[in-house]
Amino acid sequence: MTKFADYGQLFGQSLEDKLVGVRGEVVTENSKKNPADFALWFKRVGKFAQHAMHWESPWGDGFPGWHIECSAMSMKYLGEQIDIHTGGEDHLSIHHPNEIAQSEAATGKRPFVKYWFHSLFLAVDGKKMSKSLGNVYKVADVVEKGFSPMALRYYYLSAHYRKQMNFSWEGMEGVSNSYKKLKKEFLALRLEGGQDKNIFGPSADESLTGRGKFFRDEFVNAVEDDMNMSAAIAVARAVLKDEKLKDFEKRRLVENFDRVFLYAKKLKTRATKCPTFLME
């Protein structure tokens, strides 16, 4: 890590700022050149001798380290530099800085990621979500209680990613009712065709004026304000309630907003089937 001068820049610390083995019971690794060094490849020896997943490589029979897996997958599918990388707040200090270090060292291209998006952990009834507390819920649990998976998504969009969200079944009930009302208002709009034409950016298919332009700009401003999705949803609700916009204009705006927070397409169908992998 000492060869990568910008290590820790993501979370505002340098290697010199990190204390190693400050607690007496912590055993530090003496074989590393730097305590922050991490493994790119694990050989199938010692405690890893019976590891289920392993491959032959120039470095011996083994398997990739966790950090390198993420760099390899993103480069294969998205290229050597990517626009947005998301993750939880727990990845801010180790995993993502490691991704940056190994990716930029391998390609020589900077930055590896233009924008990092770190969300805070979800709380449940004011407490940390954990198996020991019995408050870890799956999408299947939400559906079993009669709620739509899209209502859950709506619930998540109602809070800013930099603020800790508190999940509760009472809150889920309220959000579900709000989502149903929004869905009903959307489905009541006349379908005239052509509403899915792009209204964003220089390549827009439609040039908006008047109130349509006003709401489009308000939506863009909300999203560009550090992904303020709750404000963006408020704009969508305002569009549906506006008395001066025609049904065609409302559908065009909301269906375009769908390209960002992905719920309007689900509003168009009266039945929503959740993918199996999300239920497990």
CA radius of gyration is 24 Å
* Proportion of residues in extended strands: 5-15%
Poorly predicted ranges: 263-280
Please tell me what the overall shape is.
globular
CATH topology of the largest domain: Four Helix Bundle (Hemerythrin (Met), subunit A)
Distance between the terminal alpha carbons, to the nearest Å? Answer: 38 Å
Number of alpha- plus pi-helical segments: 10
Please report the total strand number as a whole number: 7
**Secondary-structure-derived class:** mainly alpha
**What's the overall average pLDDT, rounded?**
84
Please, could you describe this protein's structure?
With 280 residues, the chain is mostly helical. It has 2 domains: 9-119, 3-Layer(aba) Sandwich (Rossmann fold), CATH 3.40.50; 123-267, Four Helix Bundle (Hemerythrin (Met), subunit A), CATH 1.20.120. It is built from 10 helices and 7 strands. The protein has helices spanning 66-78, 95-107, 139-144, 149-157, 169-187, 210-224, 229-241, 247-261, 264-267, 276-279; strands spanning 41-43, 62-64, 82-88, 113-119, 123-124, 127-128, 166-167. The strands form 3 sheets. Strands 6-5-7 form a 3-stranded mixed β-sheet. Strands 1-2 form a two-stranded antiparallel sheet. Residues 263-280 have low confidence and may be disordered.
